[in-house]
Design goal:
This protein is α+β, with helices and mostly antiparallel strands and 175 residues long. The protein has one domain: Cytidine Deaminase, domain 2 (3-Layer(aba) Sandwich). It contains 4 helices and 6 strands; from the N terminus they run αβαββαβαββ. It is globular, with a radius of gyration of 18 Å. The structure holds zinc ion.
Length: 175
């Protein structure tokens, strides 16, 4: 690559664009709202004594089932897992080979909130987005079975993306 750059052959700039629909929860269709509500509900299953950041995820499968997950932390930090991967691996283990159609993610924390705030008032204002490892894990199922719509809930606004790949450009897909 260095050699090619020196002599100026094949040098170009590529632009990567991601289409994100920005809306409120109320503007989502009924199916999507239900999935977000499940993701919010799943935050109650979070085990997050270290970060105190409670993440819930819900996956709608092609068979109509909704499978939830939540972050599970561990004193040995790297042994824990995120809410998205918790839902992803549970769905794949519970319903092997069934396509994922959509995933919704929600999170709340009491950090930097007034003590009087209820848990329901502590959902993140901005959409919570999956970490790189979760994007890569979800991509595996997307590549096998087709696009997975990604719904990222925030109390102030919600993002809807058409696929996991749109969250992970230049992704690693094969070796
Ligand atoms: Zn993650």
């Amino acid at each position: 690559m260095f050699f090619l750059n020196i002599i100026g052959i094949f040098m170009e700039t590529k632009e990567i664009k991601t289409r994100v629909k920005v809306c409120s929860l109320e503007e989502l269709g009924e199916e999507d709202r239900r999935l977000v509500e499940k993701a919010k509900e799943m935050t109650r299953a979070s085990y997050a004594p270290y970060s105190r950041f409670h993440v819930g995820a819900a996956i709608l499968l092609a068979n109509g089932e909704i499978v939830g997950g939540a972050n599970q932390e561990n004193a040995a930090f790297s042994s824990g897992t995120c809410g998205e991967r918790s839902a992803c691996f549970y769905a794949a283990a519970r319903y092997p080979g069934v396509a994922f159609r959509k995933i919704a993610v929600a999170a709340w924390t009491r950090l930097r909130r007034p003590a009087s705030a209820s848990d329901a008032d502590c959902f993140q204002e901005s959409p919570i987005s999956p970490c790189g490892a979760c994007r890569q894990a979800l991509l595996e199922y997307e590549n096998a079975h087709g696009p997975i719509e990604v719904i990222l809930y925030g109390a102030g606004k919600t993002y809807v993306l058409p696929s996991v790949a749109s969250l992970l450009p230049l992704c690693f897909t094969e070796f």
